[in-house]
Design brief:
The complex is a heterodimer of chains A (123) and B (109). With 123 residues, chain A is mostly beta strands. Chain A has strands spanning 3-7, 11-12, 18-25, 36-41, 47-53, 59-61, 69-74, 79-84, 93-99, 112-113, 117-121. Chain A contains no helices and 11 strands. In chain A, the strands form 2 sheets. In chain A, strands 2, 4, 5, 6, 9, 10 and 11 form a 7-stranded mixed beta sheet that branches. Chain B contains no helices and 9 strands. In chain B, the strands form 2 sheets. In chain B, strands 1, 3, 4, 7, 8 and 9 form a 6-stranded mixed beta sheet that branches. Chain B has a 3-stranded antiparallel beta sheet with strand order 2-6-5, with no helix packed on it. The radius of gyration of chain B is 13 Å and the shape is globular. In chain B, 38% of the residues are buried. Classes of the chains: A mainly beta (123), B mainly beta (109). Chains A and B meet through strand 5 of A and strand 7 and strand 8 of B.
Chain lengths: 123, 109
Amino acid sequence: QLQLQESGPGLVKPSETLSLTCSVSGGSIRDSPYFWGWVRQSPGKGLEWIASIFHTGTTYQNPSLKSRITISVDPSKNQFSLKLRSVTAADTAVYYCARPPPLSGDLGAFEMWGQGTIVTVSS
Amino acid sequence: QSALTQPPSASGSPGQSVTISCTGTSSDIGGFNYVSWYQQHPGKAPKLIIYEVSKRPSGVPDRFSGSKSDNTASLTVSGLQAEDEADYYCSSYAVYNLIFGGGTKLTVL
């Protein structure tokens, strides 16, 4: 059974860099033909797609966040990661890592989700 | 790219059917067959219930169905059950972008 688990600091200071990692178990990123993604949800708000990455390193990034995002993958560790620079209070959210359903589009949907990790931006 | 438009709330009695709309543009919903719907209960991760307009992932009851006409997608929940009370979000591919709706709170009366 595939499982995704987010990890990273729960508190980040304004103007600093938010760094998160998604660890995948029960399946290999290297052997999986998926674009693995990050989605966030601000408190009491809706969902926002951040970025997605293939095991080869090919990425898609939300145009509104692209200038502040770095997404990377480490197939040897079965992990992929997100860095968001110059954070503000508006970046406070639950951050999820996720994977699309089989045989679907690269940016069509996310079927498997991590439990989410809360990140608060505050001094 | 603007968020997709959903009604903030919807409701129905047990056993009834409810339809939630999701309106976009020709650059997203109208241009591609990559519309998805998610169900989210409080404190939980979203659950995919419809993808590629009308496909259901394994394990999702056929009470949930999706459709699309022009720039508007719809989710229909038939035979409403108490556990269907949740927030529902639509999403659509939009040329190297994935956008979500603002969410609809479904109340089972």
